[in-house]
Amino acid sequence: LTVLNAGRCYLKAEDLSGKVFVTSGLGGMSGAQAKAAVIAGCVGIIAEVDEAALLKRHKQGWLMEISNNLDHCIARLREARKNKIALSLGYHGNVVDLWERLVYELDKTGELLVDLGSDQTSCHNPFNGGYYPVQLGFEEAKQLIATNPGKFRTLVQESLKRHVAAINKLADKGMFFWDYGNAFLLEAQRAGADVSKKGANKTEFRYPSYVQHIMG
User: Fold this and answer.
1) Which helix (H) or strand (E) holds 163?
2) What SS3 class is residue 13?
3) Which residues of 120-143 are buried (b: 16+ CB within 10 A; e: fewer)?
4) How far apart are CA 206 and CA 198, in angstroms?
5) Cα separation, 198 vs 17, whole angstroms
6) What's the order of all strands across the beta sheet hosting 43-48?
7) Domain ranges of the chain
8) Which residues form the signal peptide (predicted)?
9) Terminal-residue alpha carbon distance, the chain
């Protein structure tokens, strides 16, 4: 319902076939995003750093395909988008790399490959395994949490700034991003990312929330 209503509200589209939804997180409740994309008829690309979570969702049938190769992900995205095939593709990697690759494709070809975007990393707990920084691999990051939590915190905040910078570039070209109630925008703001709504107070963000603006 969230994906469908986001399409209705922000794309003015009842039919999401050929539309692309990019997000992250395949653990817990966020695992439903892959299934939701296919039910809504769109192309869903969901990034996940934890291979165990990715393989679990694939084994359960919630993910149709998995890949750890961004070139392959972009090729599949283009193919499914062109042919209006419903697809859920799990990318084993950091979502910041995926967002930045989409910016690269936009800069290189002028083509906006994503229509809808969100995030379901556990940003309510960003410094203890809820969000993994793009600068490190999954296992290396887990070790750093234990050995140098201050350094880990700094890397998370740097990653959040890169994360938002990529989303902002795509949103400026027409991609619609929303907050999934996971404190992503709040933690990005605390990290110094550009998520504030211009001309509004500090508690308002430039992107809508699924609770008030989409489901409401």
Assistant:
1) helix 149-172
2) coil
3) bbbbeebbeebbbbbbbeeeebbe
4) 7
5) 33
6) 65-67, 87-92, 43-48, 20-24, 116-117, 176-177
7) 1-215
8) none
9) 11
CA pair distance 157, 67, nearest whole angstrom: 27
Give the global pTM.
0.95
Which residue in 185, 182, 188 sits closest to 156, CA to CA?
A: 188
Residue 184 sits at the vertex; the CA angle it makes with 193 and 28, to the nearest 5 degrees, is 155
CA 90 to CA 176: how far, in whole Å?
21
Tell me if residue 199 falls in helix, strand or coil.
coil
Round to whole Å and give the CA distance between 76 and 198.
Answer: 36
Amino acid letter, 117: G
Total Cβ atoms within 10 A of residue 78: 15
Write down the CATH number for the domain with range 1-215. Answer: 3.40.50.10730
